């Protein structure tokens, strides 16, 4: 079996686990994420506005926005890194690619912390995304400029024993779930 087929099978299994976790999730999903971000008050960061069955970081992003710039990813096109546009709670949003909401008016900046959505993660900081490579290209670009902290945010159920990773896959520095914080630095 080729790597692309192995990744596809791993994504399918992870999506099923994530959906089950999402369906059973209650309030307070972002409590540990808020705890982590409190240690980085004022540091420019990017979160994400959840789509489909992704865990919801918005409450932690709103807390962080009271202390410094918070952005959300904006897809620029296939094969390109993401750009990050300033976000504030209750601001006007528009429909972006893949159903993700983005600010009505873009105000781009480079974050130093990225809260990264994912399909699956492993205990070593490996991340399986949707397959477009957007976060891998973006993290590579940002990390070439300066230290950039990548925090994977997911449900516990999204953890896998092992993931089919490639040389270009950028590792996570930390993983935060609804019940724990895994610091891999």
From TrEMBL:
It comes from the Bacteria. It catalyses: (6S)-5-formyl-5,6,7,8-tetrahydrofolate + ATP = (6R)-5,10-methenyltetrahydrofolate + ADP + phosphate. GO terms for biological process: folic acid-containing compound biosynthetic process; tetrahydrofolate interconversion. Keywords: ATP-binding, Ligase, Magnesium, Metal-binding, Nucleotide-binding. It is an enzyme of class 6 (ligase). Its cofactor is Mg(2+). Signal peptide: none annotated. Gene3D superfamilies: NagB/RpiA/CoA transferase-like. Its EC number is 6.3.3.2. The keyword Iron-sulfur does not apply. The keyword ATP-binding applies. One of its GO terms (molecular function) is metal ion binding. Belongs to the 5-formyltetrahydrofolate cyclo-ligase family. This is 5-formyltetrahydrofolate cyclo-ligase. It comes from Shimia aestuarii.
């Amino acid at each position: 079996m080729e790597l692309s087929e192995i990744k596809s099978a791993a994504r399918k299994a992870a999506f099923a686990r994530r959906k089950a976790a999402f369906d059973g999730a209650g309030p307070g999903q972002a409590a540990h994420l808020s705890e982590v971000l409190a240690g980085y008050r004022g540091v420019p960061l990017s979160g994400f506005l959840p789509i489909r069955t992704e865990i919801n970081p918005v409450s932690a992003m709103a807390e962080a926005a009271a202390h410094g710039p918070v952005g959300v990813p904006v897809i620029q096109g296939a094969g390109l890194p993401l750009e990050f546009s300033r976000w504030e709670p209750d601001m006007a949003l528009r429909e972006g690619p893949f159903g993700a909401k983005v600010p009505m008016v873009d105000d781009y900046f480079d974050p130093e912390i990225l809260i990264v959505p994912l399909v699956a993660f492993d205990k070593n900081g490996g991340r399986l995304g949707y397959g477009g490579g957007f976060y891998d290209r973006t993290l590579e670009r940002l990390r070439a400029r300066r230290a950039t902290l990548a925090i994977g945010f997911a449900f516990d159920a999204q953890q896998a024993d092992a993931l089919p990773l490639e040389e270009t896959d950028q590792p996570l520095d930390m993983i935060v779930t609804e019940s724990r914080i895994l610091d891999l630095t």
